[in-house]
Structure formats: C-alpha cells, structure tokens
Amino acid sequence: MKQYLKHHEWHIIEEGLDPHYNKISESVFSIGNGRMGQRANFEEEYSGETLRGSYVAGVYYPDKTRVGWWKNGYPEYFAKVLNAPNWIGIHITIDNQKLDLAKCKVEDFRRVLDMKTGLLSRSFAATLPDGKKVKVESKRFCSMANGEVGAIRYAITPLNFTAKTTLSLYVDADVVNKDSNYDEKFWEEVNKEATEGRAIVTAQTKKTFFHVTTGMQYVITNDGKKATFDRVNIELREKYAGNVIQLDLQEGKELVVYKYAAVLSSENHAKDALVTACAKVLTEAVAKGFDALFEDHARVWAHKWDGCDITIEGDIAAQQGIRFNIFQLTQTYTGEDERLNIGPKGFTGEKYGGSTYWDTEAYCLPFFLGTAEEKVARNLLVYRYKHLERAIENAGKLGFKDGAALYPMVTMNGEECHNEWEITFEEIHRNGAIAFAIFDYIRYTGDDAYLAEFGLEVLLGISRFWSQRITWSSDRNRFVMLGVTGPNEYENNVNNNWYTNTIATWTLQYTLDALNLVGKSNPSRLAEIIAKTNFKETTETHRWREIIAKMHYPHDEKRGVYLQQDGFLDKELLRVSDLGKDDRPINQKWSWDRILRSCFIKQADVLQGIFLFEERYDIETIRRNFDFYEPMTVHESSLSPCVHVILASKLGYKERAYEFYLRTSRLDLDDYNNDTEDGCHITSMAGTWMSIVKGFGGMTVKDGTLHFNPFTPDQWKSYSFRLEFRGRVIKVKISTDAVETELETGEPLEIFLHGKPVLLKK
Amino acid sequence: MKQYLKHHEWHIIEEGLDPHYNKISESVFSIGNGRMGQRANFEEEYSGETLRGSYVAGVYYPDKTRVGWWKNGYPEYFAKVLNAPNWIGIHITIDNQKLDLAKCKVEDFRRVLDMKTGLLSRSFAATLPDGKKVKVESKRFCSMANGEVGAIRYAITPLNFTAKTTLSLYVDADVVNKDSNYDEKFWEEVNKEATEGRAIVTAQTKKTFFHVTTGMQYVITNDGKKATFDRVNIELREKYAGNVIQLDLQEGKELVVYKYAAVLSSENHAKDALVTACAKVLTEAVAKGFDALFEDHARVWAHKWDGCDITIEGDIAAQQGIRFNIFQLTQTYTGEDERLNIGPKGFTGEKYGGSTYWDTEAYCLPFFLGTAEEKVARNLLVYRYKHLERAIENAGKLGFKDGAALYPMVTMNGEECHNEWEITFEEIHRNGAIAFAIFDYIRYTGDDAYLAEFGLEVLLGISRFWSQRITWSSDRNRFVMLGVTGPNEYENNVNNNWYTNTIATWTLQYTLDALNLVGKSNPSRLAEIIAKTNFKETTETHRWREIIAKMHYPHDEKRGVYLQQDGFLDKELLRVSDLGKDDRPINQKWSWDRILRSCFIKQADVLQGIFLFEERYDIETIRRNFDFYEPMTVHESSLSPCVHVILASKLGYKERAYEFYLRTSRLDLDDYNNDTEDGCHITSMAGTWMSIVKGFGGMTVKDGTLHFNPFTPDQWKSYSFRLEFRGRVIKVKISTDAVETELETGEPLEIFLHGKPVLLKK
C-alpha cells in the first residue's frame, strides 16, 4: 500500500517525481476515450523505469501459447492486447543534452489527472547537466468527442539560457509487448510518410493483419507567435516517421508545441483509405486547434459525469476513489461499438491477454445499466451473441456437441485465450454469468424483446452445455457436476461447487421460462430459433426439468450453510484472523497445493450465489452463510470486496461494509495489491460502484420496480448518485438523517424506500 | 503400432531403409554403457529425418522453466538431460558428392543391434547421384569394459570407381537440445586441439559448468594396409576439432576407418586433468585396437547376460522383447556410480528432463535386486539418501518444516525439476515409493544394517512429511489427505486417494518399526540420528500412531472395493470397452477436464497398492478390486501393464496376463504408443522383467524366503531366469509340465514352490 497521491475531489495529484513510483503513476494517470488510450508516459525521452504503452481498442495479436505441458483443448494462440504505435513522443535536445528527467535535476514536478475533463497535465522545472534550466508544462487528452483524435500542448521555457535546440516529433510503430511470449515484435510496417509538419505511419499486426494508421501534425509557437526554425529534417526509419527541427530556445520565452494525433484502425476504415482519412482527421484537428478540441472533449465528459457521478460528502479520499473508478470505466468503454468490451486493464497496461472476462457480465453490466443509456449494456450482451458460434466451437473442442456453447474464460474475438486447464476447461460458471446477465438486463430495463432477438439463442447454447456437462450419479441417485473450478479459484477441479450447480439449474429454468415467453410473445421467431438451432424441444426440455428436480447441492445441515463443494468440511476450518502476517497474501506466500487444501477463499463463491439469487434466501440463511464463509475469505481478488459490501450492508454489518468498501475503492490509487504498475484493475471498479449503489444504497429491482434500503456509513455525511432506469433519470441522495429522491427526467415512477412506496414525479 | 523389425532371439534387425522409421530405429538401436551412449545415428551426414543425440550420464543443464502461469513453489530451473558432443561423425565426400543416404539410392540396407555383445552394425550399398556405388559396413560400440571408450569400425568399398575422396573425422560440441525451452545452446567451448590423427574438444555446460572432454583418434587402412593420404588438413571451428583427409578410394579395395573415442567428464576427473587423461585413454584405446576392445566389451556383456537373461522357448517375439528390455536397462544403469540413476529415456533420447522418477523405486529396483549384485540396488537407495537435504529443502518450499522431506517428482541432483502443480506439488505418493524401496531392498537382501546406516534418516524425513501433510477432519473425526494426485494421473487434486493414504500410513508404521529395530541393533547410531534430526520421539511417534489408528480410507461396502478417492462413485462407471475407436487413446483425443471427470484410469492406482501390499488382502478382495478397476483402465502409461500382469497371474487370469505382457514387452520394438522416435521407455522395461518373474513366475519374498507360484502362458513352451538372492544365484526354469530350480552358486537355500518347501543345493 502506497499513499503518495494527494487527496482531491476531482483531481489525482502527484507532487515530486519519485522514480520508484513512476510506473504506478503511469497506470493511474492513464487517459483514453474508448477507442484508444495510453499510459501516462512522458512526452520527452525517459531512461528511468517506465512501461511505455499505447493501446487501440479491438486490435490484438494471437501470440503463440506458452505452456509447460500441453493439454488437449488448449488454444494454440493467446490474443494479446497490443502495445500500439506511439504518438506522444516529443524528444528535446538542448545543446547536445537530452531532456531526460532521469538525468536532470527535477523540481516542482507535478502530474495531475483532472477527472472532470479527462485532462492529463504535467509541469516541472528541469536542470540539465550543464546547468541550463527549463520549465515545462504539458497537457494531453484523448478526445471523447472524436475517438480518433489526441492532442498535446507541450510548453517549454528556458529559464537561464538561449541555445540551439532540437525537437524530434514523430510516430513510432516499432514497439514491443512487455509480455510477448517469444520476444517477438507484433507490428510490421505497411507505409510511412513524412513531410514538413506531418508524419503518418501505417503498421499492420502480424497474423491478424489489423492496420493501424497513426499520424501526427504539429504547430509550434514561440513567445505566442509562429516559431521559425533553423532547419527541419524529415526522418524515416523502420516503422517510424517524423521531423527533426532545429531552432533556438530563447531565454524567458515560452515555446509551445501543439502535437495533434490521429489514430485510425482498419476496424473502422477500409485499409486503402486509412492514410487519406488520417490526413483528413489531422487537417481538421489542426484547423480546430487545441483549445476548441479540448472544449468538445470536456463537454462530453461533463455529459458523462451528469449521468454517472457519485458524490460523497465528508470523505475526500472516498470521493476521489469512487470518481477515479467511474472515470476509468467510462474512458475504457463507451458502449458505442458492440465489437468492443471491457479489458481487465483497459488502456492502462498490457497484462492479461484478451479483453473480455466474466467480469463484464458479473460486475460491469450493472454499472452500465445504472449509468448509461440502455444500448450500452445491450451492446455488451450483443457482443456475446455475436460470439455464440465461436462458443459452440469452443465447447466442441472439449467434446460437447449439438449446439452446446461454452463461452471462453478470456477472449478478444470469441475464441478462448486462456490456457490453464483448471480455469480454461473447468471454470465453467462463467457460462452462467453470461446467462444471468441477460436476465439482469431484462429485469432492469424491461426489454423483454431482447430474448427473442438475441437472448434465447444464447440461453439455449448455454443450457445445452450444462445439460451435457452434468453427470448422473447412480450411486447418489442425483445429478452431479464433476471437476469444476468455482469463482473461488483457490479450489480447483472440485465436485459439486454449490455456486456452479446453482447457476446451472437456474440457467436451465430461465431458459425454460424464456422459451415459454418467446413462444407467447413471438411464436414465429421461436419457430425460427428452434429450426436454426435444431432444438429437440421435448427431449431437451425434459432432461432439463429432470436435472432441475434432481440436482445435488452440497449442504451442511448442522451449520445450516450451503457447502462450497463436496468435501469442504474435510478441511481444517480456520479463520483468516488465524493467519500470521507472513502468510499474507497467501497467493504470494504459499505454494499452490497448500492454498488448495486450506479452507481459505479467494473471492465470494457461495456468497456470490447468495448475492445473485438473494431473493431466494431469508435473512438468517444469508447471515449464517456470510458468518461462515467471510471469515475464511482472504479477498485476494479485486472482485471480492464489493459482493461482501453488498451482503454486509444487507445484514446491517455497517462497519464491515465500510471496510470492504475501502479495499475496493482506492485499490489502484493506493496500490493496495502492489501491482498497479502493470495497469489498473478496470473491471473491479464497477464493483466499487455497486458497493455504493447496491450496497450502501441497497438498490434492487423486484418485479420491475426499484427498491432502496439505504444507510450512510458513519464516516460520511451523505452520498448521492443518479440512476438511468427505464427512460428516467433518478437522483438519490442519502444522508444520515434523510433520503432524498428526485426524478430528473421521464415519466412518473413508483419506487420503494425501505419497503414503502414513493411516487417520483418531476 | 509398427512391425517393421525382424524377430530374432538375440538381434534387433532392420532391413531396408525407410526414412519414416529412421528416428524410431535411432531410438531402438541406441547403445550405451552406463556412462555414455548415443542414438543409432549414422556416422555419415544425413539430411533426412534424424534426431542426433549423444549423452553423458550425470551431465545436465538447468534450463529456465517455461510455464504458462507461474505458481509459487515451481522450480525456476528444469534439469535437462544434455545432448552432448558428438564423436561418431565420419563425413565422406566422393568427387564432390556427399555420401548422404537421403540423397543416394540405397540398397541392402541392414541395421543390426546384437544384444548379446552390445554391437551396433550397419551395412548398405549406396549409389551416388553420378552413379558411383559404394558398399559400407560399420560397427560401433560403447565399451562396457571402459565406460569412457567408444569405437567405430567403418569400412567403405568403391564398387565401380576410383576417385578423389574426402573424409572428415571430428568431434563436435556445437550441439543443441531439441527441447531447449528458449532455443538456447547449452555448451560453451573451453578448449580444442587437433593434430594429424587426433582431435580433442573440451566443452562446458552453461550454469552447471560440467566439463566434458571428447576426443577422437583414428587409424585408416586401405586394402588391409595402412592407408596413405594426399593431404590432411586440421580443421578447427567453434566447439569443433577434426581432420579433413584427402585420399583416393580405389575400386574394389576396402578402406577401413577405425575411429576411437574417449569421453571424459569432470564428474570423474579434475577439470585441469581432463585433456591429458583423454589423450591417454585415446592412446591406450588405439594401442589395444578395435578387436581387442570389442572382446573386452563383449566379455562384460556375457557376464551381465549370465545374471540377467530370461529365455523363452516357443515365442521368438516374446524372447526378443524381454531381451531388448533387459539389454536397454543394463546399458542404461550399471550400478557402479551412486550419483547416477535411471533416466526415463536412458541414452536413447532427450525428452523429459531429469534422470530420476519414482519409476526407479517402484519399477526398476526389483529388476536390479533380482539380476545384479546387491550393491547395485543399494546404490539406488543411497542416491536418495544423498538427496535427503535437498528433499527437506524442497518440502520447505511448500511450507513444510522440522525436517519433513518431499522427494522431487523429477530430479537430476536432488532438486525438483517438474512444474505442473497437480504433479509437482500433489503427486506425493512418490515419497511413499522411496520409503517402500527401503523396505523392499531389506526384505529381499536381508541387509537390515542399511536402516541404521542410511534408511532410517530417509524414513524419518518422509514420515514427518506425511504427518504434516495429513489434515484432521473434525467433521469426519478422521485424518484425511486433501489435494493429491495418485498414480492414476487422470485424476488431479483429489481428496483421500486410497493408495496415497495407504502408503502414507504404511510408511509411518514402517518408520516406527525401523526406529524400534535400530534402537535394538544399534542404539548409539539411533541416538546419533535422533540428535542429528532433532527428532522429538515421544510427540512425533504419538502423532504417527494416532494417524495410523484414525486414517480415513475410502471404501465401497456394497461392492467390497476400496475407492480410488472420495467421490469416485459419483462418476459414470463405464468400461474401456464402451469407448469408441475414436476415443482412444483418451489422452490424445479428449480434453483434460473430460478425462478428469471420467472414470477412466491411466495406470494402476488402487491396484498399485494391492500389488505392493498383496499380503494384506485375501484373494477375493484382490479379485473384486481387479474386476472393478481393470475394465476402467486405459493403460496409457507404459508403467501400467506390468502390475496388471502380476495381479492377473495371481488371480489365474492367464489370457489377460499374457495380453498385458505383450503390451509391455514390445512397447518400443513395435512403437506401440507412436512415440518411440523420442526415445525408448527405459524404466517401464523393468516392469517387463517383473511381469515374467513376479507375474508368470509368481515370485514373492516372505519372511526372508523366496516363493514361486508359477505358470506358463499357453503361447510358450517354457521360460527360465536366474535370480541373485542373498549371495546365491538361483536358476528357475518353468515349463508347461514342470518347474526346475537350480542353485548355481552359494549356500543351500529353502524356497517354496506353489507353497511347498524345496531345498536347493548345488
């Protein structure tokens, strides 16, 4: 845990440059716009510790899988998020000395991320080895108004000299991925060109042949007027194009470099039109200018914040934390492109391949349902619909047939990207989360028609998978599910994980309900789906009903708790509080076998099921299970605390709820898990939002109606949030002594506050 | 399965060169002498499919581990058997055409391995592209009389021409390992020298710094007289030294190259003395000459065969099979060097790292007990004693303490080399095999003193491991063993594997017995061991007794069988005969999760325990377990069939026993598993020997006495073998109607035949 960032309601602030923290700050201060983004790397050269990273959404490379021992069914390739061409570089040489903060004396260093406007700023004074001192102020953003545009304003003022200076402004596609399995470079040059003032490089990814065209164009002023140069050289190297400018820096006069970037990919343009389109975007950006581009950008952010902001009174650290989470989520995924998803590191790093985990359905969907227009969440569902064929192929590789679908653990394009047998082949509850997301979306939006359009086909594929994956145990006279890994990944290859069995039979029942519903509402579409999927309605639904009726759910009568899996009680039932400091985190201190045979739980498992299907359980059942499992839970997944906030809130465990909230909301800001330098934990940020809205706010949807059972943590005065709900925007403000609800837009709506109906009208 | 090799009692014969089979033949025809060996590569250049491999015992390289996802406790390095400098090369160029069998017309190709004398011969006629035709006869051996010496007699006769010819004779240390994780070369040059007639290269392994000095010296005759050369060039390249000789090949005249090799390693010589010693070995070898060296070598083989041969009358394929198994085992491990062990591929390939698996104790020990002097088996035990400290360190990495020892799954120098969590961390029954081997050795030899000298310390370390690894289940009121992989590796991370639980408590009891025995026979040594190991006799033995008394063993009352693990009956209980042809072998056709949740068994598991502790179980219990488990067993490990031969024999299932025998004895000769090209399955060859002696021969040792309950498979007339037993050599010949036993050397001995005492006298 590190606490070097200043607390502020809207800003993330780093004062003073500590090279040891630079990679953490590069992650935290990352900026993006859903289409592209990059870590908060310096524009100038930096020979200290850094992870240079720029990313373009949807562009990936299938790196050859690396495993110790190959197992049948492993994917041959692993889709990697690609470190993309770098357009931010402004290299400066003054009197033959590079401006490199690792080699200068640096004063007044300040890095600020203004979350309100999505602006990254940096200022410092640097003294070069020979005593020359410059002041630098840079500002950078990736435009939320135009996803293909980025801009930098880089101002440099010589404080005590006038000297010959070289500026190198360029686009560089010769980048590497830190986690390349075989030290390979993934980009090849297609085209490059540079003229005075502009450079454009088109690079293509090996194997996947995505083209990305990255252009830059610059305008330089000196002391407020157009600068004059001694000389401009065109520089072209492999995968690199730029200008090298020679000029005089004049003491006391501010030289400002406006560097405009255009990043276009073949996902959105014909390959042969990329260069022309790039030039056009550049021309328009330059014509508009930095300030006007920024205004457009800030306007979009203002609109976004209107919908998704959460305010907290009385706790600046908490306020900063929740805004940081919302900011990162919002700039990672805008919901405009149904081919995209929410990568675990967003645009903040390249660790973990693929872009899509079950995190999307289980954690992110509620955030987008609550804070964005309906189509954003819908696009997340459609994304999986479009991958259905691949999920059926994926199941086929594991021996399933007749349309059974297993969605991948990790994916970019629908193909499985993961290669640990105990996860890839066995952590199949992910399939349940994808089914549940359909239910959750419809429950929230009332968009029943989604079932006929897309949902039912997905549900059929998933139910067929469960139906084949389940085994009839003659000995037990019950259906069982053998060899799975549940949400608690600190158990592998267990039998009858209660959560997985529960979500499997839930899926079967929901699919039966969905068949029924579509049959009534849209019989011709149902007939079409039955024909398309070759669905044997009688025999298949008969088996599903049998499974629902005769599923085995491990349970301990004595304690009145559901058992995480068969044999769980064979373990030594310790509590996390029994562990020594040297034992934590167990995933860094203990060998895997020791973790597996211990009772310790990585993240909610039985409790995840109770959270999803809360309405099935009375409060005392929830309490018994929470009181049994939570003390064994080490919360070593960033996805764990939020579920516990929600259940603890429900149980009235206010202090515990607040403790869990702290773990989730400032995870990256305080580098809680000592891994933020690799990038931020984007998907779990949605859990932070849920912690407030579903946890403290006690928000649920029952029978199409919003319910709130809120409380205010003792540490706060009040908190407020807005919700998008069925065409309305509702504002909720909760303080220690009152709950204020307000309908900001839309038709009147009845909601329930602490179980009592309230009619909201404008 | 391929059956291109000719059946012969003593020879392995390949007629005709089929390039598709070359790598298989290279494995099968491999030669070695316990210190070094190599695949049956051609001496001349060969541009076809080949895996060039030479190996020096005990020389390894710790290659950086490659895994997909790192887990705590994985070894950073993986000791690889090293492909060592190549000394066999004789490259021939005739009129600027290389003699390369991939580019010639080849006739009368014949490769023969004479197992009686350990001689590899090859003969062929080859027509070069321009029509020149030569006849070649080569012979090669690695001397069993002097482990550092190898020799080749390579005779070439031009049949239709006289031409300028170049011979290149060399030593080449610039070799690669096929399975290098990062395409690295593992050898560096230390020194090289070449004079006319001789070349010596010293290479060292990276990281481990083994030095291997490889020398060659040649003598060439032409038409029986010393050959004259036009010119001899010295050739020195990186890691390479040799001579290039220009001479005339004269039509009809036989040119014979005698190439002598000396291979010395720093394991046996001071590094700075290696080159001098190598030169001396070369000088002596040349002085002695090919024929005399061969005579010495063949004499050692004759002596070996005297002790270990098994003859079978009436079945040449079976005769060839068993001799091939014995031949390979004998040339892999001679028992002279207690630092060495029995690598899974011996000198026949480089697949699998490390040299030592539990195969050594569970399968190979009985072979060496039965066929070699006592010290050979004893050295195998001492090898593990010498690794005890490392085994304690290894257990420490997994969180065990106070002297608990976990022997590695795979090792070269005592350190763990394996990196699959479900094996490395969980296949802990290997520890039991190491304890059992001590018991087995003493049971067979009567060498009780071994306990005090070495055995007890190892037993204490292993028992301490079990004691810490076992968990008390309050819920069950029993001790349990969670998260293990049993011998059946088609189950991972199971609870209460019956075999593991059984061998664990057996170890605890045997250690208690051993403490008692050493306490009586050698109290001062016991005191010394207790002090050295800081053994808390009262508390530790108390816990062991508790575990023995309260261990949980899964059992099915209804069927009267032991259960392979908890929950085994949840599976769908199919039979292998229910599988389609497309399903087999399941480890190539099914994904891992499907294998895991199926009932199918890779190799004996419960039956392995019944085999080891046979005396505990009545015949009907054995029958019920065999009849339950064998039909579910796919025998996809080379170690599986032999245990089934032995149990089937005991149960009177003669036909089944013979079927299993066929699977094991000609596994490599017929390339049964389609993988012989990687090398032969050396360790399972000892299982073939056990199949005959313990299976058909029904040999057991009870209370220090040999018992035989033999039968003759219907396909055989008779079979006979010799056994070393407590200073005697006993010959046993079993035919359909009689059993002849004979004491060849040693004191009179009472044995039991079909339960009846027989006194053997000379």
UniProtKB/TrEMBL annotation, chains A, B:
Gene3D superfamilies: 1.50.10.10, Glycoside hydrolase, family 65, N-terminal domain, Maltose phosphorylase, domain 3. PANTHER family: GLYCOSYL HYDROLASE-RELATED (PTHR11051), MALTOSE PHOSPHORYLASE (PTHR11051:SF14). Residues 699-760 form the Glycoside hydrolase family 65 C-terminal domain. This is Glycoside hydrolase family 65 protein. It comes from Chryseolinea lacunae. SUPFAM superfamilies: Galactose mutarotase-like (SSF74650), Six-hairpin glycosidases (SSF48208). Keywords: Hydrolase. One of its GO terms (molecular function) is hydrolase activity. Residues 13-266 form the Glycoside hydrolase family 65 N-terminal domain. Residues 323-690 form the Glycoside hydrolase family 65 central catalytic domain. Belongs to the glycosyl hydrolase 65 family. InterPro entries: 6-hairpin_glycosidase_sf (IPR008928), 6hp_glycosidase-like_sf (IPR012341), Gal_mutarotase_sf_dom (IPR011013), GH65_N (IPR037018), Glyco_hydro_65_C (IPR005194), Glyco_hydro_65_M (IPR005195), Glyco_hydro_65_N (IPR005196), Malt_Pase/Glycosyl_Hdrlase (IPR017045).
